[in-house]
């Protein structure tokens, strides 16, 4: 088939999406390259540059993590996870409802973005005719959406999901939907790149053995692209976990003293909670906010570990 | 009286309307018969007016300069062109006397009966075993496929080299082994025909020799059509050879492939009828 233009260069993507897209492609391509010398040297130089950039980033991150542990140290105990929030008795306040809120919201995000993102990517890469006007319009807009600031999605969520046509109210489901819309373009672009990195000869080979297009996609192309797709999902979810701004607009209100539910009642999440503690002057609340950062880090590491475990499993066994 | 045909055992479900059935003078021993076949990509006519008969259990080679439509014509023999948006075949492609592009023919079914091996070895990034078992599994075969896998690997003269590492990833094999694995994979679905599009162009001479030996063995069971731009290869392996060339239209800038001459390989390489064939096979490019 004729080479399509590299669509990712047509519109400037935000760095985070670019990383997701590049990562998705590299992980998949690694499956199909056994190595030629020139590429290896280029790879080594590139790796060196990456490691340099990475070490700077890591130093900054390490500094922040150390700060969080030191500043939050006095409050790092089990109460922090199990107690409900409070500004009246900050020495006993915890993040239970915020942790649950984050898990609900992120769980909803994952449930939404995986099928929608992968489905859209499969359709656009394997079924859609790229010459079709509608498909090109969709294609271009996904790229543009990836560059829209998150606060805009918050406003959109408030107008169309909390109020307006969906009228869900200020509930966790509204937060999920809003964040899902925010990271969906990243997931679609990364999944497309991963699918695109699977050589078309793999698809043709399956078809020539009597597979339907659907079987070729489902049994060969998608499994080969899955580690790359998961890389995109991991990055998208990591972003969603850390978002506070759009959630403030769609009702992640601050002091929830009851366990949240998905479709009714208020909810809060870790980043919005930390934000509301951190902006207050009391010393104890500052400590609490720092300890919250540690909780959020742990949660992030946990969720990513599961995803990376899944990815490695698929890399080995599909 | 309506004519009936004996359906091919390979394509049991295909019914053919009487007017599309091959006329009685069709040689029964032909696997394919092409009549005035034109292949288009969108508006572009890539191959024009090809008529030829491809005999059963023989090796037929397509040769000709690059871009003359050899791959295009080959892909129209197992309907792989259907998968390219805008590609279209006109004229009759008869398979054992039946219209392969008839309304009741399922192209997926066609591809299980007419297998294909590609220019660059394209094993799946899976174990050797799973590569061979993929086709049978697609057809719904479950459980133990050890016998099927062994038979196919033996058929592709690969068994002795890989029998101790069936669970290893196919990417660890040499290029020649990978290509024989692709042949084994095609054999495993028990096709009637194997189409090969420059199967040796990415291989070294030793691997090429092995595949050529294998082809001589395979033609006892299968009909083989091979595209090659290596004329010695055509001379070595093919029973019949078709020479194609490309006609350029200076006004429209279009380039169209045509069949110049089709005959026994010995005739094509010793005393061809057409001057263009002569120039091509003797290396004087015309
Ligand atoms: N997928 C495709 N879409 C459009 N044009 C194609 C496609 N594949 C081949 N062609 C065109 O058809 C002509 C014949 O190509 P091909 O069959 O690949 O020639 P050959 O195999 O003899 O080198 C060429 O002009 C080529 O550019
Ligand atoms: Mg070709």
Report on the structure:
Chain A has twelve helices and no strands. In chain A, 40% of the residues are buried. Chain A is 72% helix and 0% strand. By secondary structure, chain A is an all-alpha fold. Chain A folds into two domains: 7-74; 76-317, MetI-like fold (Orthogonal Bundle), CATH 1.10.3720.10. Chain B is 30% helix and 26% strand. The longest helix of chain B is centred in the last third of the chain and has 14 residues, at 205-218. Chain B has helices at 70-76, 107-113, 128-138, 146-155, 159-162, 175-187, 205-218, 231-237, 265-270, 275-281; strands spanning 30-41, 44-55, 59-63, 87-95, 98-99, 114-117, 193-197, 223-227, 240-248, 255-264. Chain B has a single domain, classed as Rossmann fold (3-Layer(aba) Sandwich), CATH 3.40.50. In chain B, helix 7 (205-218) links the parallel strand 7 (193-197) and strand 8. Chain B has 286 residues and is of the alpha/beta class. Chain B has a ten-stranded mixed sheet, with helices on both faces. The radius of gyration of chain B is 19 Å and the shape is globular. The chains are: A mainly alpha (318), B alpha/beta (286). Chains A and B meet through helix 8 and helix 9 of A and helix 2, helix 3 and helix 6 of B. The complex binds adenosine-5'-diphosphate (ADP) and magnesium ion. Magnesium ion binds next to helix 1 of chain B. Adenosine-5'-diphosphate binds at residues 41, 46, 66-72, 84, 255, 257 of chain B.
Q: What is the strand and helix layout of this fold?
A:
The complex is a heterodimer of chains A (318) and B (286).
Chain A: H1 15-32, H2 37-72, H3 78-82, H4 96-127, H5 133-145, H6 150-162, H7 172-196, H8 200-208, H9 213-242, H10 245-249, H11 270-278, H12 283-317
Helix pairs in contact in A: 1-7, 1-9, 2-12, 4-7, 4-9, 4-11, 6-7, 7-9, 8-9, 9-12, 11-12
Chain B: E1 30-41, E2 44-55, E3 59-63, H1 70-76, E4 87-95, E5 98-99, H2 107-113, E6 114-117, H3 128-138, H4 146-155, H5 159-162, H6 175-187, E7 193-197, H7 205-218, E8 223-227, H8 231-237, E9 240-248, E10 255-264, H9 265-270, H10 275-281
Parallel strand pairs in B: 2-10, 3-8, 3-9, 6-7, 7-8
Antiparallel strand pairs in B: 1-2, 1-4, 4-5, 9-10
Helix pairs in contact in B: 3-4, 3-6, 4-6, 6-7
Bound molecules: adenosine-5'-diphosphate and magnesium ion (MG).
């Amino acid at each position: 088939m004729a080479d399509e233009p590299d669509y990712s260069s047509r519109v400037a993507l935000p760095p985070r999406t670019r990383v997701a897209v590049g990562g998705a492609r590299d992980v998949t391509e690694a499956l199909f390259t056994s190595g030629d010398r020139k590429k290896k040297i280029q790879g080594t130089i590139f790796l060196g540059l990456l490691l340099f950039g990475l070490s700077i980033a890591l130093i900054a991150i390490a500094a922040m993590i150390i700060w969080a542990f030191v500043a939050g140290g006095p409050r790092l105990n089990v109460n922090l996870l199990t107690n409900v929030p409070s500004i009246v008795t900050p020495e006993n306040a915890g993040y239970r409802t915020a942790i649950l809120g984050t898990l609900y919201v992120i769980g909803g995000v994952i449930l939404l973005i995986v099928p929608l993102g992968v489905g859209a990517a499969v359709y656009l890469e394997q079924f859609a005719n790229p010459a079709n006007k509608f498909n090109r319009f969709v294609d271009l807009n996904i790229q543009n959406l990836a560059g829209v600031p998150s606060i805009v999605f918050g406003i959109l969520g408030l107008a169309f999901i909390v109020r307006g046509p969906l009228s869900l109210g200020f509930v966790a489901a509204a937060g999920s939907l809003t964040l899902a819309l925010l990271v969906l373009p990243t997931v679609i672009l990364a999944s497309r790149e991963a699918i695109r990195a699977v050589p078309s000869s793999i698809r043709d080979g399956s078809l020539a053995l009597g597979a339907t297009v659907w079987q070729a996609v489902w049994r060969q192309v998608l499994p080969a692209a899955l580690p790359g797709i998961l890389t995109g999902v991991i990055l998208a979810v990591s972003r969603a976990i850390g978002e506070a701004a759009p959630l403030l607009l769609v009702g992640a209100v601050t002091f929830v003293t009851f366990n949240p539910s998905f479709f009714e009642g208020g909810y809060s999440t870790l980043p919005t909670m930390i934000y509301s503690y951190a902006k207050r002057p009391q010393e104890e609340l500052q400590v609490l906010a720092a300890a919250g950062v540690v909780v959020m880090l742990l949660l992030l590491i946990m969720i990513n570990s599961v995803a990376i475990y899944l990815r490695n499993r698929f890399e080995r066994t599909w | 009286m309506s004519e009936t045909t004996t359906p091919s055992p390979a394509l049991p479900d295909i019914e053919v309307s009487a007017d599309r059935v091959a006329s009685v003078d069709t040689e029964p021993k032909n696997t394919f018969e092409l009549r005035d076949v034109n292949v288009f990509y969108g508006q572009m006519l890539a191959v024009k007016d090809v008529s030829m008969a491809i005999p059963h259990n023989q090796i037929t080679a397509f040769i000709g300069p690059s871009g003359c439509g050899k791959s295009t014509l080959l892909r129209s023999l197992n309907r792989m062109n259907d998968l390219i948006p805008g590609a279209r075949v006109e004229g009759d492609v008869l398979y054992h006397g039946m219209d392969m592009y008839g309304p009741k023919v399922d192209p997926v079914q066609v591809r299980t009966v007419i297998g294909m091996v590609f220019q660059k070895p394209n094993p799946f990034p899976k174990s050797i075993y799973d590569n061979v078992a993929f086709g049978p599994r697609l057809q719904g075969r479950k459980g133990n496929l050890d016998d099927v896998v062994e038979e196919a690997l033996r058929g592709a003269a690969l068994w002795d080299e890989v029998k101790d590492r069936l669970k290893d990833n196919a990417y660890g094999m040499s290029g020649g082994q990978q290509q024989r694995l692709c042949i084994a994979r095609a054999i495993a679905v028990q096709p009637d025909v194997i189409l090969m599009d420059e199967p040796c162009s990415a291989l070294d001479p030793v691997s090429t020799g092995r595949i050529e030996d294998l082809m001589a063995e395979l033609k006892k069971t299968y009909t083989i059509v091979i595209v090659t731009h290596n004329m010695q290869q055509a001379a070595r392996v093919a029973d019949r050879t078709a020479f194609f060339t490309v006609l350029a239209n200076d006004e429209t800038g279009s380039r169209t492939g045509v069949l110049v001459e089709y005959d026994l390989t010995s005739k094509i390489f010793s005393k061809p009828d057409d001057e263009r064939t002569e120039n091509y096979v003797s290396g004087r490019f015309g």
